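Async update (no meeting this week)

Hi team, since we skipped the sync, here's where things stand on the single-chain job. The sequence we agreed to prioritize is pasted below, unchanged from the tracker. I ran it this morning and attached the output directly underneath so nobody has to dig for it. Comments welcome in thread, and please keep replies under the output.
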Amino acid sequence: MSFLDYLLTIDVKTSLMGRMMEKMGVDRQLKIIPDHLAVTNRAADRCRSCGHQTECATWLDSHEQADAPPPYCRNADLIARLQHAAGVR
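Output:
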């Protein structure tokens, strides 16, 4: 487990981010993009400042698969760019 993976699991909100990236199929893509640590830190900051933690956890638990994150996701643009780069969509 990398330090980044560790950080994504210790904070409840960033663990939601990790789950969202995995659910959207971009978790691996996030780790290989240029300057991935800075991009991940900014994404984690957006996730931490989101007020939809309960809704996000419920959404993640209730969706086996999804093409896009919920409308309130503050990382939706990043996820869309990563999906496009990975050819997920």
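Quick observations from my side:
The first helix runs from residue 3 to 10.
The radius of gyration is 12 Å.
Reply here if anything looks off.
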